[in-house]
Design brief:
- The structure is a single chain.
- By secondary structure, the protein is α+β, with helices and mostly antiparallel strands.
- The chain folds into 3 domains: about 80 residues, PH-domain like (Roll), CATH 2.30.29; about 130 residues, 2-Layer Sandwich (Alpha-Beta Plaits); about 140 residues, Nucleoside diphosphate kinase-like domain (Alpha-Beta Plaits, 2-Layer Sandwich).
- It is about 35% helix and about 25% strand.
- It contains 16 helices and 14 strands.
- The strands form 3 sheets. Strands 4-3-2-1-6-5 form a 6-stranded antiparallel beta sheet. The chain has a 4-stranded antiparallel beta sheet with strand order 8-9-7-10, sandwiched between helices.
- Strand 5 and strand 6 form a beta hairpin.
- Helix 2 packs antiparallel against helix 10 and helix 3 crosses helix 4.
- The protein is globular.
- The structure holds cytidine-5'-diphosphate and magnesium ion.
- Cytidine-5'-diphosphate (CDP) binds next to loops.
């Protein structure tokens, strides 16, 4: 028998309003998949070649899309799979300090280049006491006050990074805490490249698995609504969504860089896993108007997306022009420097959604940052 990976998965069936459980099998040899219905004990999907599932996406806690069904990988299905795919996978907390939030694109580029993926992200602004709680282990150190003061002085971006040895890889990417030392000892590190001194030193990385668990819980608590809040301001704004295909292709850093280089202010940023019902609701206005509506819905709920609030007067019009024509082929002919020309594939996988009508900007931003962030 071909060797295969096995997972236990859950899929929310919107028609029956039920969570259904399937075993998912993936055969690396030919990239085929097979699904088995656990409750009814029968084959649900016969072994079929499926090009859109990548082995690197197969780990517990991730969501994958199989023939338009978004499956949550809730456990390994056998010891072989757990040993092969699960052993070195770690989650760690990274956060970007206020000095380089405008360089978040560059930092993400280094993260993706190291084979780590970003599974959660949120821009937030910590109060003095939240920052003091976060750094409680350094309470008695002489630099404590300056550190807490700095970290609460502006927006930070907290992220969950995932991958083989994520914790040590991210700390190595950061380099020594003192940026001057980093420039001497680790010139390729992000602190060497973007840091200023010991306090303004780009970012933070958990230093043990226990710290990672505590720090992830601090920014992304399992009880919704109690973590640090997002930074959306809901005035003079437009909504930009970096679509799931672009996120999974590792284009997030490049797209954020393009947006910042063009002079747009990113005033809120967060990753969301949109489910089908919410995707349908968000795109409601396109229903029956745009023939791509069903495919747009499927794309938006096919994996995590990154949502931005772009702020500034006249932003809705100017940002929309910057995104370019909806069809990337047309964009590449007419407006080759636009986001869709640069990063889009086709009319559905066109890299970004942006608000169409200026008066909808606030509503679309609210949909994510008020309603879905709950
Ligand atoms: O951030 P990292 O884990 O590399 O270093 P740390 O020893 O846990 O210290 C936390 C933060 O305190 C550092 O990132 C520095 O910003 C700051 N610090 C400092 O300003 N002076 C020191 N001598 C040590 C740390
Ligand atoms: Mg530390």
């Amino acid at each position: 028998m071909d060797h295969r990976y096995a997972f236990l998965t859950e899929w929310y069936d919107p028609t029956a309003a039920l969570l259904r459980r399937y075993q998912l099998f993936y055969y690396p040899k030919d990239g085929s998949v097979e699904m088995f219905d656990v409750k009814n004990q029968r084959i649900f999907l016969r072994r079929t070649k499926y090009d859109h599932l990548h082995p690197e996406d197969l780990f517990v806690g991730n969501r994958v899309n199989v023939f338009s069904r978004q499956l949550n990988l809730i456990d390994y299905g056998d010891q072989y799979t757990a040993n092969k795919l699960g052993s070195k996978k770690e989650r760690t907390l990274a956060f970007i300090k206020p000095d380089v939030v405008t360089k978040i694109g560059d930092v993400l580029e280094s993260i993706y280049a190291s084979n780590l993926i970003v599974t959660k992200a949120k821009m937030t602004k910590l109060t003095w006491s939240q920052a003091a709680d976060f750094y409680v282990e350094h309470q008695s150190k002489p630099f404590f006050n300056n550190l807490v003061q700095f970290v609460s002085s502006g927006p930070v971006v907290a992220m969950e990074l995932m991958g083989d040895e994520a914790m040590s890889i991210w700390r190595r990417l950061l380099g020594p805490a003192d940026s001057a030392v980093a420039r001497k000892e680790a010139p390729q590190s992000v602190r060497a490249q973007f840091g200023t001194d010991g306090i303004k030193n780009v970012g933070h990385g958990s230093d043990s698995l226990a710290a990672a668990a505590r720090e992830l819980e601090f920014f992304f608590p399992s009880t919704i609504g109690i973590g640090p809040s997002n930074t959306a301001i809901y005035t003079d704004c437009t909504c930009c969504i970096i679509k799931p295909h672009a996120v999974s292709e590792g284009l997030t850093g490049k797209i954020l860089n393009s947006i910042s280089d063009a002079g747009f202010e990113i005033s809120a940023l967060q990753m969301f896993n949109v489910d089908r019902a919410n995707a349908e609701e968000f795109y409601e206005v396109y229903k029956g108007v745009v023939i791509e509506y069903p495919s747009m819905v499927t794309e938006l709920c096919s994996g995590p997306c990154m949502v931005l609030e772009i702020h500034g007067s006249n932003t809705p019009q100017s940002f929309r022009e910057f995104c370019g024509p909806a069809d990337p082929e047309i964009a590449r002919h007419l407006r080759p420097t636009t986001l869709r020309a640069l990063y889009g594939k086709d009319k559905v996988k066109n890299a970004v959604h942006c608000t169409d009508l200026p008066e909808d900007g606030v509503l679309e931003v609210q949909y994510f940052f008020k309603i879905l962030d709950g």
